[in-house]
Structures are given as structure tokens and as C-alpha cells.
């Protein structure tokens, strides 16, 4: 096996069968833990409060916030958190996927591989980044390819653990396409491992979600062979 190949022979993830609710209030193990009042504040109010708190963090660290390079940092960080890197927490940003009839009667595996994503580890709030590979068999409907990328990005843009991210993507593809035949593989680098703690810059983490036809070893092997091909 080539050094960068993905070989995942683990059993499919055993998540609950419920759909991911639009309000994201945690009711099963694969949902992001959220409080019921998570969206009582609008984005501007959140940005204002985060700005205040991050300014205090910088003050505690001893940074001079009168310096022209630092004085705008609290606001920049607050906007980045709310509008960009954690935008996937807000259900209003959930992709609305338009479906099309599978009029070609295409009955083979469809794979979108090497989807680049950036997320953040929920334990240390440092980046997780890597590639996601998503496949499905149509049950009569197909989805625009860019929407698969947007689904990956949506669930990535929140504090995450890789296992949950993998399951959330798989469950969302099932929900949107009304199919039980979904495969998801993620290869990721974790900066909480590389930039702190053990300081290992070479290791990667692989996770997988297989449902329906992808539980068949031949189908799974076909999927893995394709994503490992150049």
C-alpha cells in the first residue's frame, strides 16, 4: 500500500437514525452540542461580546492594544468566529440542495473526492484541515456536485471532532438525497497534535462512514481504490 493511501477496515459508524435537526440542539451523539438559547443573540451582538472578551484575553497576555497592528485584532477575531470559521453553527447557513431527477438512470457509484475542508478542534480551538471524499448511489435523485462540497464545508465550520464531522456529513447526504447508500472518508491533520502537546507534524487521522451498499466489502473496496488513485 502506498504511504498516503487510505485503508479503513473498521465497521461503519453506529450513529442514531434521526435526522440532524435544523436547530442543532443536541439530541443524539452525532449532533453538535448546542444550548437551546444558542441563537437568542444576533450575529452583531455576538461579535460585540466576543470582541470584548478577546480584548480582555489579549490584555491578560500582556499585549499592547494601542499598537496599530493589534488594536483591531479583537474585532477581526470576533467577526472571523461568527461570520467565517464557526458559521456552520448557525442553521441559516445550512446549504439548500436542489435535487434533479436521475433521468440518465445512472445506477453506479458517484464520488466527489479531495474536497478540501478547514475546521477547528473543539478541545483546543486550533485548526483541523484535510480532505473529505463523499460517495453515494442514487435512489432516483441526484444533487449538484458543488452542493456536496458545501455540505462538507457547512459541517466543518464549527468546533468539531473528526468522528462527529464524518457522521454529520454522511447523515446529511442521506437526508438530502433520500438514500441509505452513502460513503464518507476523511483524512485530516490536527494542529492540536502538530503544534502543541506531542508535536507530531507527520501523523494524519482517518475516519469513515459507510451505510447501505457501502457496507459491502466489494463496494467499499471500489470506493477506497478510487479515492487512492491519482
Q: Can you describe this structure?
A:
The protein is α+β, with helices and mostly antiparallel strands and 230 residues long. It has 6 helices and 7 strands. It has a 5-stranded mixed beta sheet with strand order 5-2-3-6-7. α3 runs antiparallel to α4. This is GTP cyclohydrolase 1.
Task: For the structure shown, list the relevant keywords.
single chain; 230 residues; alpha+beta; five-stranded mixed β-sheet; two-stranded antiparallel sheet; globular; nucleotide-binding
Architecture blueprint of SSEs:
Blueprint: H1 43-60, H2 73-85, E1 99-101, E2 110-121, E3 127-136, E4 141-143, H3 145-156, E5 159-160, H4 162-177, E6 182-190, H5 191-194, E7 205-210, H6 217-228
Parallel strand pairs: 2-5
Antiparallel strand pairs: 1-4, 2-3, 3-6, 6-7
Helix pairs in contact: 1-2, 3-4
Biased composition (Polar residues): 1-13
GO molecular function, one term: GTP cyclohydrolase I activity
Domain GTP cyclohydrolase I: 50-227
Short description:
Pfam families: GTP_cyclohydroI. The chain has 230 residues and is an alpha+beta fold.
Strands, total number: 7
- Name the helicity range: 25-40%
Question: What is the percentage of strand-forming residues?
Answer: 15-25%
List the strand order in the largest sheet: 5-2-3-6-7
Instruction: Please report the distance between the alpha carbons of the first and last residues.
Output: 14 Å
Give me the number of helical elements: 6
The outline comes out as globular
Structural class, please?
alpha+beta
**Whole-number average pLDDT?**
88
Q: Which sheet architecture does the biggest sheet show? A: 5 strands, mixed
Region (Disordered): 1-27
Protein name: GTP cyclohydrolase 1
Catalytic activity: GTP + H2O = 7,8-dihydroneopterin 3'-triphosphate + formate + H(+)
Family: Belongs to the GTP cyclohydrolase I family.
